Amino acid sequence: MYLDSNATTRPSAAAVAAARRGMEEAWGNPSSVHRTGQAARRAMELARAQVATLIGAKPAEVVFTSGGTEANRLALEGVLQLATGRGQPAVLLTTPVEHAAVREPAAALERRGVAVRRLPVDGHGVLDPDDLAAAYGEAPEEAAVLASVHWANNETGVIQPIEALAAVAAAAAADRAATTRFHTDATQAVGKLPVDLRTGGPLDGVDLLTLSAHKLYAVKGSGALFVRRRVRLAGVASGGPQERGLRAGTENLAGILALGAAADESAAYLADPAASAGLAARRDRFEAAVRAAMPGAVVPAGGARFGRLANTANIAFPGLLAEAILLGLSERGVDASAGAACSSGSLEPSPVLLAMGLAEPLAHGSVRFSLSRHTTDAELDEAVAALAATVGRLGRLLPTG
Q: Which segments constitute the Aminotransferase class V domain (predicted)?
């Protein structure tokens, strides 16, 4: 039973077939002018259009990358390096509940002289738009300011009020003479929530948006950064003219074509609201069954103001360690994770949960279960039984009293 889809999804048959076409048919170098190269170029541009359609963008606004991590780095460094390179002060506004793919580049920028402000979140991990507006207003008038706030949290599934945050960013950009931008890491949102980046639309204040292929049923090693036409970036990977000079290197055609196919499938999934509602109902039923079987279990983000991703359940077990629970679940055939997959194995509690004000004993015992579009109620029933057996055994070995 695979309940770790926020870490990675199983590639769909359509995505695998598209990747195979990229290796067997569109295998040319898309920068070559001959027929083989141009056939690869056409296939790549079709995939770019497919991704653009999914997020309501123009194909020219989609820059392919190796994944969400690279796209985040390109967004942050691309904006702020333009400022620091000409001696202009630079400010990064972010939160303590971001993924490491934003937290770590932010820390690196801070070491290089960028002023980084980590804005507080409420008990569910939500940033108040008024706090973002105040932070924009407090930035030095001559400074370039970039805000980076994820759309949906990978550990808890909590959704940020992204339209309100984007509106704040748009107002700040209109008020300030210096560069003023807004980036959202939408790695967990794209494919799960409707995204409409059309100019003049509700997300017009979003300048940059990150997505990752393997989070939406494509293959690893591919992703994209949406770059609105008004935005200038410094490239962070030099060595060639690919991707508008922002991301040098011959493109990963197999991964890109798989991403295009997955984007089409995601668009079809999102066109049926009942599909997402059904997934949320399964998630809620799973949480209720866990709490009924283990009354001490806590769902830290259960009452988030703007909701959670339909597929994500973060459940904390007081007095137990998540690593021990995960080992017990794995022995019983259930795959889950402790917070972010890239930090699993660490005995440190999740910084996301701590920033939400969760007590350390709960943060240490927090397990993330992330469903796929194909998870069944029968699988979840088996997972509840495996979890109850695991927690019961650990409770006898490590009594919480």
A: 1-381
Q: Is there a domain that residue 136 lies in?
A: yes
pLDDT value at residue 399:
46
Query: Beta partners for 159?
Result: 152
Q: What pLDDT is recorded for position 305? A: 87
Question: Distance between CA 218 and CA 267 in Å, rounded?
Answer: 14
Q: How many C-beta neighbours within 10 Å does residue 234 have?
A: 17
Q: What is the pTM of this model?
A: 0.95
Distance between terminal CA atoms of the chain?
32
Alpha-carbon distances, residue 344 vs 19, 145, 243, 368 (angstroms):
29, 33, 33, 11
**230 shares a domain with 113:** yes
d(CA 11, CA 318): 35
In Å, how far from its chain's centre is CA 378? 28
Distance in angstroms (rounded) separating the CA atoms of residues 388 and 263: 37
Q: How confident is the model at residue 200 (pLDDT cuts 50, 70, 90)?
A: very high
Catalytic machinery residues? 342
| Residue 87, number of CB atoms within 10 A of its CB | 6
Q: Could you tell me if 227 and 308 lie in one domain?
A: no
**Which of 238, 269, 300 finishes a domain?**
269
Is residue 287 located within the same domain as residue 258?
A: no
- Calculate the CA 186 to chain-centre distance: 4
List the CATH number of the domain containing 384.
Answer: 3.90.1150.10
Alpha carbon distance 352, 121 (integer Å)? 10
pLDDT digits (tens, 9 = 90+) for 274-325: 999 999 999 999 999 999 999 999 999 988 889 999 999 999 999 899 999 9
Q: Would you say 15 and 262 are in contact if contact means Cβ atoms under 8 Å apart?
A: yes
pLDDT in tens, 65-122: 999 999 999 999 999 999 998 999 999 999 999 999 999 999 999 999 999 999 999 9
DSSP symbol at 337 = B
Distance CA 338, CA 262 (A): 27
